[in-house]
Amino acid sequence: MAERIAVPAGAARAVTLRAGDRLRIVNVAGKQVADFVAFDAGDVDHALSTLHTLVSLKRLFPTKGDQLRTNRRTPMLEITRDDTGRHDMLIAACDPWRYEYDFGVTGHRSCSDNFLEALRAWKLERHQLPQPVNFFQNMSYPDGRVEFGESLARPGDVVEVRALMSVIAAVSACPMDLNPISGYRVSDLVLEIV
Q1: Residue 193 placed within a domain
Q2: What span, in angstroms and rounded, lies between the C-alpha atoms of 194 and 192?
Q3: Residues forming beta bridges with residue 111, ordered by sequence position
């Protein structure tokens, strides 16, 4: 039986996975971006790295069958299910400064703050947070421009990763509602560990 964990809109949750465990991220209402970070459970300085991953994959957008690598290029997780087919590895997690400088808004929830809250038990600081994999985020980079598209995720779409080592993982239901990535609204996610 799967363990189910609700991730409220605009918040995050952290889980621990043993090698072989599968984590499903369920896009409950559709279009919700899920920022994802992960750490080696035995060494938090050994973390998921999107830049090392994209070099190994030789492309920007990960999908089923791809291995996500660490900052030491070690395979950490494998994508075993991908209902949506479009995810991003370049865009930084939103943070208080993104909202302040780019949108003139203070006090807005952010993925960076969400991760610090969810990972509090591991005493991680902001500078230790890796660049996230932005599951369900629909980006394009024509001629080097950065274009934020609306997520292609439909209600109930799932992305599933299988742990290749013991990991601490955190998922944020991205609070960004000021650009189109989640359809200008924020909704819940559900995590299932099987």
Answers
A1: no
A2: 6
A3: none
Whether 47 is covered by a domain: the verdict is yes
Range of the domain at 35: 12-186
For residue 38, report the phi and psi dihedrals to the nearest 5 degrees: -150, 150
CA atoms lying within 13 Å on the CB side of residue 85: 2
| pTM given for the model | 0.98
Cβ atoms of 100 and 113 within 8 Å: the answer is: no
Q: Label residue 106 exposed, middle or buried (CB < 10 Å: 0-12, 13-18, 19+).
A: exposed
Nearest to 119 by CA among 41, 53, 46, 51: 41
- The DSSP bridge partners found for residue 171 are 13, 36
Residues 161, 157: Cα–Cα separation, whole Å:
14
Question: What is the tens place of the pLDDT at every residue in 81-95?
Answer: 999 999 999 999 999
